[in-house]
Amino acid sequence: MSSEDAASISTVPVLKGDNYCLWARKMTAYLQVKGLYKYMRDSFIAPLDLNVTELTQMNAHDWDATNDDGTPIAIPAAIQALVDQRQNYLDWLEDNEKARGSITLHLSDSIAEIFENVVNARMLWIAL
Questions:
Q1: DSSP bridge partners of 107
Q2: Mean pLDDT in runs of 10 for the chain (128 residues)?
Q3: Are 31 and 40 in contact (CB under 8 A)?
Q4: Cα 107 to Cα 14, 24, 30, 125, 128, distances in angstroms
Q5: Whole-angstrom Cα distance, residue 19 to residue 37?
Q6: What SS3 class is residue 72?
Q7: Most-buried pick from 6, 7, 27, 56 (CB within 10 A)?
Q8: Helix 20-33 crosses helix 77-104 at what angle (to 10 degrees)?
Q9: C-alpha 88: how far from its chain's center?
Q10: pTM above 0.85, yes or no
Q11: Which three-class secondary structure state does DSSP give residue 10?
Q12: Distance (Å, rounded) from C-alpha 52 to C-alpha 123?
């Protein structure tokens, strides 16, 4: 964590219950600076992960196949679409964890314990 990151996160107080308005304002600003606040919005819909059939199709592709001249064979458009969908989901999952972690680090132990099983950052935000 850079000193700039440490400084910006240190401005967010721990939510104890009676300081919600201040906490929410500072946490909103922190998540906005980190590009994570979009995950708290109603309009943001998490991408779907691939189903078993799609994962099987993607994994069945011969990623090491080459042409006679040794160049890689082009990835079919349908397979590339699955790869892109999977990557979008994995990117969302990583950012969701960052947002959830940032929020959780600024909850009192008693509040954090109540919401420890809420894994979606937006659902945690709404619940608070």
A1: 15
A2: 63 95 96 93 85 92 89 92 94 95 96 95 95
A3: yes
A4: 5, 11, 14, 11, 10
A5: 20
A6: strand
A7: 27
A8: 140
A9: 10
A10: no
A11: helix
A12: 26
